[in-house]
Amino acid sequence: MKKPEFAKLFMDYMEEISDPENRKLYEQELEQMERERVEEGGGGQVQVIVPDFHFVVKIKAIDSNEKIFVNICTSIKLDKPASTRSARGTNWSLPHSLTILKPCTDKAGKEAKSADFVLHPEAMINAEKIPGFRQMIVDTAV
């Protein structure tokens, strides 16, 4: 971001994807690529997920003291959370997807890493309604 030409390209990109029409087109193109992959015998196990961001959790790695950001996101492509009752309380199943750590920078421009933790949107609804559910999401993501 220190180079003006890179910053301009990045801002142009951000402006482009913030346009709802462009985002819709982008998602349609990704869905088409998924269909083509399946039709070509690539299997149906891989799906491109374009998550919606909700909040971020900042942690430090125990071994290296490295700053890590875990972006809590949602996508309807994941299964909904489910619960079962037992004598000891409620047991939750929290289907999710977690990306690998990737390099990023923090607000001060220092090196850090980030990952996306993606859940079904219903998880965020539960986080607002059910005491402790948001903390369970954070604990699972971390």
Please provide a written account of the structure.
With 142 residues, the protein is an alpha+beta fold. The chain is built from 4 helices and 7 strands; from the N terminus they run H-H-E-E-E-E-E-E-E-H-H. Strands 1, 2, 5, 6 and 7 form a 5-stranded mixed β-sheet that branches. It has a two-stranded antiparallel sheet with strand order 3-4. Helix 3 packs across helix 4 (133-141). The radius of gyration is 18 Å and the shape is globular.
In summary, what is this structure?
By secondary structure, the chain is an alpha+beta fold.
How do the strands and helices of this protein lay out in sequence?
Blueprint: H1 4-18, H2 20-39, E1 52-60, E2 67-74, E3 82-86, E4 89-93, E5 97-98, E6 102-105, E7 111-119, H3 121-129, H4 133-141
Parallel strand pairs: 2-7
Antiparallel strand pairs: 1-2, 3-4, 5-7, 6-7
Helix pairs in contact: 3-4
